[in-house]
Amino acid sequence: MRSVIAVLFLTTVVAAQDPPGVYPRGDHILPTKKELAADRLPWFPSFAEGLKTAHARQQPLFLWVMNGHPLGCT
Amino acid sequence: MTGRRSVFRDPLVRGLLKKHFTLAADETWRLQNGTGPECRFFQSFAVLGHYKGKGGTKQGYYVIAPSGKLLASANTGNVEKIVAMLDLAKKKWKALEPADRRLPPGSKFTPKHRWEQSYPKGGLILERFVRDIKGGDRRWNRDFVWFTKDEANSLLPGKTDKTKKMPRSLALRLARFHLIDNVRGQTLPFAASEIVHAEITLEKKRTDGDLLRLTVSGTTRAVAKGPWLLGKTDWTPDRDWPRTMNATLRGTVSYDLKRQRFVAFKVIAVGKRTGRTGNDGRGKDPKPGKVGFYFRLASPGVRIPPTLLEFYEADWVIRPSGAGYGDHK
Predict the structure, then answer these.
(1) What is the ipTM of this complex?
(2) Of B269, B177, B169, B253, which is closest to residue B218 (Cα–Cα)?
(3) Cα angle: B247, vertex B178, B283; to 5 degrees
(4) Taking the C-alpha atoms of A64, A68, A69 and A74 in order, what is their torsion angle to the nearest 10 degrees?
(5) Which of A56, B42, B206, B305 has a CA positioned 20 to 30 A from the CA of residue B225?
(6) Which A-chain residues 25-54 have CB contacts (< 8 A) with chain B?
(7) Where does A1-74 have alpha helices with state H?
(8) B127-179 pLDDT, tens per residue?
(9) Given a cut of 50, is residue B326 above it in pLDDT?
(10) Contact call for residues B160 and B298 (beta carbons, < 8 A)
(11) What residue of A is the nearest CA neighbor of B65?
């Protein structure tokens, strides 16, 4: 019985935090760690910054371009 | 988008990139259409890449030497192809003359205008995710929301007040530019006159030491009958796009009274959408549906501008001199 009450209590708490119709905690909206894998790389947020740094480091530049910023809304 | 982004899930790809390359990400429309020095520089090698020639999109991955010499390029979500591309680029890099590994003498690539120049230092910088709630293919998208410090502070109830209605200009900002259906691709903003309703309230719940804890709740309703109402811009569509978005928001935030800034932010919204636009990816599935929005604090130092920043009605937004967004010259 105690466990049932605990479950009911937890359900109520979780439900109270969530807008109607949304799964608990909005976890379904947030990207997973896998989906955010690109964020684990050290991007410069502009071509010009990357280019100058590549020159300074004497490295080739890997440039990712999209319609919309690849690290923002595309 | 998800497909191409997915190559970074591969640890081999990430390892190669981190070890051998400097990495940059940028928006291509400006680079391929502008006439500023860094745009011209981009165009000089992009026409030799996977989408050869002038015109058409130049999206994708390019590996170049700082001299502008193209080493490899591709636009693919295939990990093997990316690894092959990186290997090829490494080999070509090793074979380069020292002069080809440097920037062209005297080159200056500092752009006159970028939207990042409007970054509101000390302000409230939110990261917003969006995804279909039911059905769909798990695609998602991200954007950023900017408020200045003063705007952020204007969200708080007064000392003796329990609640504060979000200033209309800021509620409009959310409804017009951030509670929009760009799950599958960029979409159009709403005009202010298309926001039928936008009321968002912050309510004090309790104070824990220096932390003021509040709830956020509200609703917005946007109705675009179709015609574009925002004048001649690079976003101006060539036809009408009727669409609606009804959103319900709820969440919790914490404000540090001592440091005078938000230190926790979690607001979820459910949006009921109808209609579509030209680039929002709903062409094959235009049925009404529900989308979920999740707003949280952006990681410190992230300065990617909101996609629709140019439409913000705010005097702190630095706009390009000349006529509109195309002024990258």
Answers:
(1) 0.93
(2) B269
(3) 80
(4) -90
(5) B305
(6) 26, 28-31, 34-35, 37-38, 40-54
(7) 2-17, 47-57
(8) 999 999 877 688 999 999 999 999 999 999 999 999 999 999 999 999 999 99
(9) no
(10) no
(11) A60
pTM of the model as a whole: 0.91
* Alpha-carbon span B3 to B312, nearest angstrom: 31
Q: How many residues does chain B have?
A: 329
In this prediction, residue B3 carries a pLDDT of 60
User: What pairs with residue B223 in β-bridges?
Assistant: B244
Grouping H, G, I as helix, E, B as strand and the rest as coil, residue B88 is helix
For the segment B59-77, what is each residue's pLDDT rounded down to a tens digit?
999 999 999 999 999 999 9
Searching chain B, which residue's CA lies closest to the CA of residue A42?
B23
CB atoms A26 and B59 under 8 Å: no
Residue numbers of B between 38 and 77 with CB closer than 8 Å to A: 38, 41-42, 57-66, 71
| CA gap B321, A18 in Å, rounded | 44
The answer to whether residue B285 neighbours chain A at the CB level (below 8 Å) is no
The reply to whether residue B62 touches residue A45, judged by beta carbons under 8 angstroms, is: no
Is residue B141 within 8 Å of B183, Cβ to Cβ? yes
Residue of A nearest to B42 (CA): A47
Distance CA B244, CA B263 (A): 33
Inter-chain touch A45–B71, beta carbons under 8 Å: no
Burial level of B206, CB count in 10 A (0-12/13-18/19+)? exposed
What's the token pair of residue B176?
């017009």
Round to whole Å and give the CA distance between B150 and A65.
34
C-alpha distance from A7 to closest chain B C-alpha (Å)? 22
Two tokens, residue B78? 């295939």
Residues B169, B192: Cα–Cα separation, whole Å: 9
Cβ–Cβ < 8 Å for B141, B182: yes
CA B132 to chain centre: 18
